[in-house]
Amino acid sequence: MTSSQGRNLTTHREAERRLLQSFHAIPPGEPVRLAKRTSNLFRPRARTGVPGLDVSGLDGVLSVDPTTRTADVQGMCTYEDLVAATLPHGLIPLVVPQLRTITLGGAVTGLGIESTSFRNGLPHESVLEMDVLTGAGEIVTATAGTTENPGENSDLFATFPNSYGSLGYATRLRIELERVPRFVALQHVRFDDATLMAKAIEEIVTERTWQGEPVDGLDGVSFQPGEHYLTLARWTDDPLGGTSDYTGQEIYYRSLQQREHDLLTVHDYLWRWDTDWFWCSGAFGLHNPRIRRLWPKRWRRSDVYHKLVGLDRRFGIIDRIDRRKGRPQRERVIQDVEVPVENLPDFLAWFDEHVGMRPVWLCPLRLRGDRTWPTYPLQPATTYVNIGFWGTVPVGPDADQAPMNRAIEERVHQLGGHKSLYSEAFYDKETFDALYDGANLAAVKARHDPDDRFTSLHDKAVRRR
Question: Three-state DSSP class for 231?
């Protein structure tokens, strides 16, 4: 068996020892959190002077095995580093979230999604086993197993996705990989009618083809009512006359409206959204060609923009400017939601009438198999569409009460959908527990965190603790 070795196991065990040492150094009753410099969360939390968990040395790839198409990866490893280790072997993770600095552990305990999710599901579905630091102050291995023969700590394995650190933190994950060629051919298909687009999504998800051509990746953008695009990606080794580059002056999302066909390297396809943080870089002037030329290329990254947003939230810069200019106070509406594909047109129509934010990202999703995941209970054999929208909406003096976010939550619930918890949530405890199987989550937490060292999911997501 050939294996590409990365960080060695001795170094990994030493990093785990430091992690455990830092865990036991946190006084009982104090919040246990990661000590990390970056985050892709948009959920504010109370500040604390207590040191976080030492995760230094847990951010690499331990090994890549091209024969079994698996990799052993540390929990704090970013997808940028993970892809850099697997792509030379012609392999990538089954789902690669859109932003470079999302970590593998973060995508599994949270919810990552991308254009291969219509056939590969969510990142946690390609995890074979993982080591998790639990609230009992030990690192345990968790595997899936079967109904007849449950795996080791199978309850933790099943409940971990969407638990956001309330059950523990992954230190090592063994994941499946898939083969990819050198290039990705894109076709941008326009739909004037959202209902027709929804029917096309269901057809592509079911058949994995479109007009006789295979489809390996599927996502899209709704720019406005009557202007929707699905991007169909096809893996290929044919360079087809040359590739596009959207890391310079050209902006990827605009290309959907400007050309029907395109070609990217696999590397550039995976990070096509990161350069401009989808379209959110426009808030910093980067859609202006003159500013774009002056903005260093190394700073055109989602993690840089996220830090700038964090500074604004900390110091209220935009709110102060709006007050001086007499503008109504704005509410941050940063959400990803999933609705069944047949309800996509209803949600978009409601969203246009009540929120009015465009463009929005569309990413079809279907679980890989019959297995369900209690903390994010999507139905098997059911096509959902993730709708991502990120920005602010003028609402006036009620902005602090989050009326738009609350209305979105209610509408998603009415349409049989769910929402990710990387951003703010406002559900009452009863509704939250019904949506995220709070009873099971509490039972698993009681077994693996008997002293309640980790903050509960509801406290993290809703009460911002």
Answer: strand
